[in-house]
Amino acid sequence: MTESNVSPTQAPWMIYGAYGYTGALIAREAVRRGMRPILAGRDRQRTEALAQELGLPATVFGLDDLETAAANIGETVAVLNCAGPFSATAHSMMAACLKAGAHYLDITGEIAVFELAQSLREQARAANIVLCPGVGFDVIPTDCVAAALKAAMPDATHLALGFNSRSGFSPGTAKTSVEGLAQGGKVRREGQIVPVPLAYKVRRIDFGDGEKDAMTIPWGDVSTAYYTTGIPNIEVYLPGSPGMIANAKRANYLRPLLRLHWVQQLIKARISKTVTGPDEATRAQRPTFVWGEVSNARGERKTARIQTANGYSLTVTGALAVMAHVLENPHAGGTYTPSQLVGADLITRLPGSGELQITS
Q1: How far apart (Å, rounded) are the C-alpha atoms in residues 186 and 38?
Q2: For residue 268, what are the contacts with CB-CB under 8 A and spacing of at least 6?
Q3: 138: Cβ–Cβ under 8 A, 6 or more apart, which residues?
Q4: CB burial class (10 A; 0-12, 13-18, 19+) of residue 306?
Q5: CA 56 to centroid of chain Cα atoms
Q6: What angle do CA 228, 329, 114 make, to 5 degrees?
Q7: Are 240 and 248 in contact (CB under 8 A)?
Q8: How many whole angstroms separate alpha carbon 240 and alpha carbon 248?
């Protein structure tokens, strides 16, 4: 088949970590839409079983060797990395995509991965590939809210973002959260990411479903919202009960223990055995409320709110929307945030999203 006979959305692309909770959801929805991704991962039995079930091609490889990974990516146009925790996979897969000349997307929410992608922007430009981590719930809705607020207040100096999601955890998200507890909190202050204690600040926020106590968390927007907006001071909030907030503060004293490799491995092994992720009925019944606020040097404020689908459902539709966009539209090589790549209206175009409302 010649290149002219291949529609952009049928160009070869890959889901790595396809047999994980979220990877499998994305693979199934891709097939439902008539897309045919290559399924990939390091576990042969699980990768090939899912590929056989869905009637898709499969390839099996790990990320320990750059040459092997790049060879397996081959002529693939783009890779969607769903293998979390991304602290263990993103660096190797980005390097393999740079070598193979394939665009890189993932569904991370990890600050370090976003910062890694930004550090590789010149290499991405030279290779003429797109690096765009965070094309799921982390960080599409908050990134789009940040972009909309920046447009509404161009001279904003402070940005706060947050969300109220009642989803349970997938295994990958739970493992990432364990790593996050060990690393502590993060905020951006005068353009720099700085470490702070967990639950560093607590404030009352109406995310769109009533006021709640909320605490700062080390969410990906501490990195990405800066590149999207240029706003130098950024915090991200999550609502929590008094007990949850108190436990987060207590966890600051346990961080030295949580940093130990054997403790991390023990907790992650337990997660692998006990955490499965929310089922379809649970996802359908639990929407997410996303909030943002900007202020400027004169003390003026603007607030944004939007209701979206459940975080995992949004990750499925968001990741496929960004992948389709990359396959169908040429972009200069470089590192992008989702709103930079697709547009700030991306969130309002996804199933389950309401109107993005901004008030003074």
Answers
A1: 36
A2: 175, 178
A3: 107, 108, 109, 219, 220, 315
A4: buried
A5: 25
A6: 30
A7: yes
A8: 10
Phi, psi (degrees; rounded to nearest 5) at 276: -120, -20
CB distance 217 to 165 below 8 Å:
no
Integer-rounded Cα Rg, in Å, for the chain is 20
End-to-end CA distance of the chain: 56
The Cα–Cα gap between 311 and 297 comes to 34
118-128 pLDDT per residue, tens: 999 999 999 99
Strand-pair partners of 193: 188
Tens digit of each residue's pLDDT (9 = 90 or more) over 23-68: 999 999 999 999 999 999 999 999 999 999 999 999 999 999 999 9
DSSP code of 210?
S
For the chain, counts of helices (H) and of strands (E): 14, 16
> Positive or negative, the Cα torsion across 177, 181, 182, 185?
positive
**Cα 73 to the chain's mean position, in Å?**
22
3 state DSSP class of 18: coil
DSSP lists the bridge partners of residue 290 as 163, 306
Q: Which two tokens stand for residue 221?
A: 């927007």
Chain Cα centroid distance, residue 54: 25
